[in-house]
């Protein structure tokens, strides 16, 4: 084997036959805590989503929109006027 390659070949047992010391694993928390500002943002988002759903249901109850199923998904669309000559 050429000398310049021989120094790169690893020994099957490693360079030193002594057993290697392994570091102990660092304990990780099971569930991380969410920072207070992110919790508040999530609560604000939840409140806004609930308000949007309430508004959507109110529009449907008022007859201004209707539920339409497209490709297996529910969508909402403006209702068609009863009188085609009616002004909007």
Keywords:
2 strands, 88 residues, alpha+beta, 34% helix, two-stranded antiparallel sheet
What can be said about this structure in brief?
The protein has 88 residues and is an alpha+beta fold.
3D architecture notes:
The chain is of the alpha+beta class. The protein contains 2 helices and 2 strands. A two-stranded antiparallel sheet has the order 1-2. The termini are far apart.
Shape: elongated
Helix residue percentage: 25-40%
Overall mean pLDDT: 77
Oligomer: single chain
- How would a crystallographer describe the biggest sheet? 2 strands, antiparallel
Q: What is the succession of H and E elements?
A: HHEE
Rg from Cα: 33 Å
Please state how the strands of the largest beta sheet are arranged side by side. 1-2
How far the N terminus sits from the C terminus, by CA atoms, comes to: 91 Å
How large is the share of residues in beta strands? 5-15%
By secondary-structure content and strand pairing, the structural class works out as alpha+beta
Per DSSP E runs of 2 or more residues, the count of β-strands stands at: 2
Query: What low-confidence regions span 5 or more consecutive residues with pLDDT below 50?
Result: none
